[in-house]
Amino acid sequence: MNVSLSPQVYTTIICWLLFSIIWLWQRNKTKENVSTRTVSQKIAAFSGYVIIFSALYLPLFFTKGTVAESIIPQYDIIQNFGVLLCVCGIFTSIWSRLLLGWNWSGGVTAKKDHELIVTGPYRFVRHPIYTGFIAALIGTCLVTGGIVGIVITGLYIFGLYAKINKEEQLLADLFGDVYSDYQKRTCKLIPFLW
Question: Membrane topology type, per the record (predicted)?
Fold first, then answer.
């Protein structure tokens, strides 16, 4: 194996399992969509998660000299920082998801009686679930270090940027000036920066 099953690796796996359990538990606790997601959209979303998580942990199953090789040195300081990012990211995503509650949607769609949530991490960033998810992905990449995971994470972040822009437009259409004011006092994704 290229990457050992260290306590740091186990910690990231536990974080992602907790994330998955919460998401599965909450999946049907939402308001009715104004427009429904198609089966192909749901399959694409699920497939995306499978690809991401497979890519992140490839270095556990392949030896050096393969495309799955770990390229980040396995120094404790790097791994511990990765674990910190992963834990904080998962915590932020779960907290944000629970605050969003019945207004959450896997796709970019309005809910009936949609509410704008501006408490908790939503006071600082408009998309804290994504902020946390990205932090957890980067943290896991630091722990496992695989080039495939790093590339997939980069592609995911790029794709997420397009999704965020669609969500911003939807929320601006739904909430008008209220959302415009909210945009002025918060960052899009990274607290205090962007």
Answer: Multi-pass membrane protein
